[in-house]
Amino acid sequence: MSAKVLDSSNCKAEPQQLKPLINQAKCEGASDCLKVCPYNVFEVRKLAAVERKELPLTARLKVAVHGGKQAFVIHPEACHSCGLCIQACPEKAIRLIKF
């Protein structure tokens, strides 16, 4: 994560309005989303073989170089739409969509 301090005071929206969507072709498993989310919406884990197979070739190569890990949204219902994850993601792999 960059040296920029992210302010979680914006995380006041009611949950279940928006949820994060991760572009798996871009995610490099840097864990910055996990570190900044005050609601434990994310996890970073190694991809299963079947998950790796579903990625485009360039994404599979990227995942292999970065330890085989990617971020996943495990608690979308807990998202408070503050956007800290979007700001923190170095790959710009996260966006918020309607729940």
Write the layout of secondary structure elements.
Elements: E1 18-22, H1 32-36, E2 42-46, H2 49-54, H3 57-65, E3 69-73, H4 84-88, E4 94-98
Antiparallel strand pairs: 1-4, 2-3
Write up what this structure looks like.
This protein is 25% helix and 20% strand. The strands form 2 sheets. A two-stranded antiparallel ribbon has the order 1-4. It has 99 residues and is an alpha+beta fold.
User: Roughly how many Å apart are the termini?
Assistant: 27 Å
User: What is the topology, as strand order, of the major beta sheet?
Assistant: 1-4
Number of beta strands: 4
Q: What Rg do the Cα atoms give?
A: 13 Å
Beta percentage is 15-25%
Q: Roughly what percent helix?
A: 25-40%
Query: Which residues sit in consecutive blocks of at least 5 with pLDDT less than 50?
Result: none
Helix and strand sequence? EHEHHEHE
Q: Name the overall outline.
A: elongated
Instruction: Kindly name the structural category.
Output: alpha+beta
